[in-house]
Design a protein that fits this description.
Blueprint: H1 2-34, H2 36-39, E1 43-46, E2 49-53, H3 93-109, E3 132-133, H4 135-149, H5 153-162, E4 164-165, E5 176-178, H6 179-187
Antiparallel strand pairs: 1-2, 3-5, 4-5
Helix pairs in contact: 4-5
Length: 191
Protein backbone atom coordinates (compact mmCIF):
# COMPACT_ATOMS: atom_id res chain seq x y z
CA UNK A 1 0.00 0.00 0.00
CA UNK A 2 2.82 2.45 0.84
CA UNK A 3 4.50 1.62 -2.47
CA UNK A 4 1.27 2.51 -4.28
CA UNK A 5 0.95 5.81 -2.39
CA UNK A 6 4.61 6.64 -3.03
CA UNK A 7 4.18 5.97 -6.78
CA UNK A 8 1.04 8.10 -6.84
CA UNK A 9 2.82 10.95 -5.01
CA UNK A 10 5.80 10.72 -7.39
CA UNK A 11 3.48 10.81 -10.40
CA UNK A 12 1.66 13.80 -8.93
CA UNK A 13 4.94 15.67 -8.40
CA UNK A 14 6.20 14.75 -11.88
CA UNK A 15 2.99 15.85 -13.61
CA UNK A 16 2.86 19.04 -11.52
CA UNK A 17 6.42 19.87 -12.59
CA UNK A 18 5.67 19.10 -16.25
CA UNK A 19 2.27 20.76 -16.57
CA UNK A 20 2.67 23.47 -13.95
CA UNK A 21 6.26 24.58 -14.59
CA UNK A 22 7.88 23.10 -17.70
CA UNK A 23 4.97 23.45 -20.14
CA UNK A 24 4.15 27.09 -19.18
CA UNK A 25 7.83 28.06 -19.47
CA UNK A 26 8.16 26.44 -22.91
CA UNK A 27 4.86 27.91 -24.15
CA UNK A 28 5.75 31.40 -22.86
CA UNK A 29 9.23 31.19 -24.36
CA UNK A 30 7.88 30.12 -27.76
CA UNK A 31 5.23 32.85 -27.68
CA UNK A 32 7.87 35.49 -26.89
CA UNK A 33 10.06 34.16 -29.70
CA UNK A 34 7.43 33.70 -32.41
CA UNK A 35 4.75 36.28 -31.50
CA UNK A 36 6.39 38.86 -29.20
CA UNK A 37 3.87 41.67 -29.81
CA UNK A 38 0.83 39.45 -29.28
CA UNK A 39 2.39 37.64 -26.30
CA UNK A 40 2.78 41.00 -24.58
CA UNK A 41 -0.83 42.09 -25.06
CA UNK A 42 -0.71 43.73 -28.52
CA UNK A 43 -0.09 47.04 -26.79
CA UNK A 44 -0.28 50.41 -28.51
CA UNK A 45 2.58 52.61 -27.30
CA UNK A 46 2.63 56.40 -27.62
CA UNK A 47 5.55 58.50 -26.40
CA UNK A 48 7.06 55.41 -24.78
CA UNK A 49 3.97 54.65 -22.69
CA UNK A 50 1.34 51.98 -23.31
CA UNK A 51 -2.01 53.67 -23.93
CA UNK A 52 -4.12 50.68 -24.88
CA UNK A 53 -4.31 47.40 -26.69
CA UNK A 54 -5.63 46.60 -30.13
CA UNK A 55 -7.52 43.75 -28.43
CA UNK A 56 -9.45 45.71 -25.78
CA UNK A 57 -12.02 48.40 -26.53
CA UNK A 58 -11.87 51.77 -24.81
CA UNK A 59 -14.71 54.12 -24.03
CA UNK A 60 -14.88 57.32 -26.11
CA UNK A 61 -17.65 59.87 -25.55
CA UNK A 62 -16.23 63.05 -27.10
CA UNK A 63 -17.99 63.87 -30.42
CA UNK A 64 -14.60 64.27 -32.15
CA UNK A 65 -13.93 60.54 -31.69
CA UNK A 66 -15.50 57.44 -33.12
CA UNK A 67 -17.37 55.55 -30.42
CA UNK A 68 -17.02 51.82 -29.95
CA UNK A 69 -19.51 49.23 -28.86
CA UNK A 70 -21.13 49.70 -25.47
CA UNK A 71 -19.35 47.82 -22.71
CA UNK A 72 -21.18 45.28 -20.59
CA UNK A 73 -18.49 45.59 -17.91
CA UNK A 74 -20.46 47.92 -15.70
CA UNK A 75 -20.16 49.83 -13.48
CA UNK A 76 -16.56 50.46 -14.60
CA UNK A 77 -16.42 50.59 -18.39
CA UNK A 78 -13.77 48.54 -20.16
CA UNK A 79 -12.86 46.59 -17.02
CA UNK A 80 -11.40 43.28 -18.18
CA UNK A 81 -12.03 41.69 -14.79
CA UNK A 82 -15.76 41.92 -15.48
CA UNK A 83 -15.49 40.65 -19.04
CA UNK A 84 -18.68 39.01 -20.19
CA UNK A 85 -21.95 39.78 -21.86
CA UNK A 86 -24.91 41.41 -20.18
CA UNK A 87 -26.79 38.10 -20.36
CA UNK A 88 -29.97 40.02 -21.09
CA UNK A 89 -32.21 38.08 -23.46
CA UNK A 90 -33.84 39.69 -26.49
CA UNK A 91 -37.21 39.90 -24.72
CA UNK A 92 -35.81 41.39 -21.52
CA UNK A 93 -37.24 44.90 -20.92
CA UNK A 94 -33.89 46.02 -19.45
CA UNK A 95 -32.17 45.31 -22.78
CA UNK A 96 -34.89 47.17 -24.68
CA UNK A 97 -34.54 50.17 -22.35
CA UNK A 98 -30.72 50.16 -22.63
CA UNK A 99 -30.88 50.04 -26.45
CA UNK A 100 -33.42 52.90 -26.52
CA UNK A 101 -31.17 55.01 -24.26
CA UNK A 102 -28.14 54.30 -26.46
CA UNK A 103 -30.05 55.22 -29.61
CA UNK A 104 -31.21 58.46 -27.96
CA UNK A 105 -27.61 59.31 -26.99
CA UNK A 106 -26.39 58.69 -30.55
CA UNK A 107 -29.22 60.79 -32.00
CA UNK A 108 -28.51 63.61 -29.52
CA UNK A 109 -24.82 63.62 -30.49
CA UNK A 110 -25.70 63.94 -34.19
CA UNK A 111 -29.28 65.27 -34.56
CA UNK A 112 -29.03 65.61 -38.33
CA UNK A 113 -28.26 61.93 -38.82
CA UNK A 114 -31.48 60.12 -39.66
CA UNK A 115 -29.86 56.89 -40.85
CA UNK A 116 -30.72 53.69 -39.01
CA UNK A 117 -28.36 53.13 -36.08
CA UNK A 118 -26.13 50.07 -36.65
CA UNK A 119 -26.81 47.35 -34.10
CA UNK A 120 -23.20 47.17 -32.89
CA UNK A 121 -23.41 50.77 -31.62
CA UNK A 122 -26.26 49.91 -29.26
CA UNK A 123 -25.53 46.34 -28.14
CA UNK A 124 -22.57 44.99 -26.18
CA UNK A 125 -20.53 42.09 -27.48
CA UNK A 126 -20.19 38.72 -25.76
CA UNK A 127 -17.03 39.85 -23.96
CA UNK A 128 -18.17 43.42 -23.45
CA UNK A 129 -14.68 44.55 -24.49
CA UNK A 130 -14.69 44.49 -28.31
CA UNK A 131 -12.19 46.95 -29.79
CA UNK A 132 -13.84 47.01 -33.21
CA UNK A 133 -17.01 48.23 -34.86
CA UNK A 134 -18.48 47.44 -38.25
CA UNK A 135 -17.76 49.70 -41.23
CA UNK A 136 -21.47 50.62 -41.11
CA UNK A 137 -21.04 51.85 -37.52
CA UNK A 138 -18.05 53.93 -38.60
CA UNK A 139 -20.04 55.34 -41.54
CA UNK A 140 -22.88 56.27 -39.20
CA UNK A 141 -20.49 58.39 -37.10
CA UNK A 142 -18.36 59.80 -39.92
CA UNK A 143 -20.16 63.14 -40.43
CA UNK A 144 -20.28 63.85 -36.67
CA UNK A 145 -16.55 63.22 -36.25
CA UNK A 146 -15.63 65.23 -39.35
CA UNK A 147 -17.76 68.19 -38.20
CA UNK A 148 -16.39 68.10 -34.64
CA UNK A 149 -12.84 68.13 -35.97
CA UNK A 150 -13.40 70.65 -38.75
CA UNK A 151 -12.32 68.10 -41.36
CA UNK A 152 -13.86 67.09 -44.65
CA UNK A 153 -15.79 63.84 -44.73
CA UNK A 154 -13.55 62.53 -47.52
CA UNK A 155 -10.50 63.05 -45.30
CA UNK A 156 -12.10 61.14 -42.42
CA UNK A 157 -13.43 58.50 -44.84
CA UNK A 158 -9.88 57.88 -46.06
CA UNK A 159 -8.79 57.13 -42.48
CA UNK A 160 -11.79 54.85 -41.92
CA UNK A 161 -10.87 52.98 -45.10
CA UNK A 162 -7.24 52.72 -43.98
CA UNK A 163 -8.18 51.26 -40.60
CA UNK A 164 -10.82 48.85 -41.92
CA UNK A 165 -9.67 45.24 -41.81
CA UNK A 166 -11.22 42.69 -44.13
CA UNK A 167 -12.28 39.16 -43.42
CA UNK A 168 -9.61 36.90 -41.96
CA UNK A 169 -8.11 34.72 -44.69
CA UNK A 170 -10.71 36.28 -46.99
CA UNK A 171 -13.60 34.20 -45.62
CA UNK A 172 -13.79 34.29 -41.81
CA UNK A 173 -15.54 37.00 -39.84
CA UNK A 174 -16.74 40.36 -41.04
CA UNK A 175 -14.92 43.55 -42.03
CA UNK A 176 -14.17 45.67 -38.97
CA UNK A 177 -12.66 48.96 -37.83
CA UNK A 178 -10.41 49.19 -34.76
CA UNK A 179 -11.76 52.23 -32.89
CA UNK A 180 -8.65 53.01 -30.82
CA UNK A 181 -6.31 52.86 -33.82
CA UNK A 182 -8.68 55.02 -35.89
CA UNK A 183 -9.01 57.62 -33.13
CA UNK A 184 -5.24 57.75 -32.65
CA UNK A 185 -4.85 58.30 -36.39
CA UNK A 186 -7.34 61.17 -36.17
CA UNK A 187 -5.27 62.72 -33.36
CA UNK A 188 -2.00 62.33 -35.29
CA UNK A 189 -0.74 65.27 -37.35
CA UNK A 190 -2.40 65.04 -40.74
CA UNK A 191 -0.21 63.75 -43.53
Amino acid sequence: MTRLLRNAAMLLLLMTAITGVLYPLVATGLAQLVFPRQANGSLIVKDGKPIGSVLIGQSFTDPKYFWGRPSATTPQADNGVNSGGSNLGPTNPALTDAVKQRIAALRAADPGNTAPVPVDLVTASASGLDPEISPAAAQYQLARVAKARGLGTTQVQALVDEYTSGRQLGVFGEPRVNVLQLNLALDAPQR
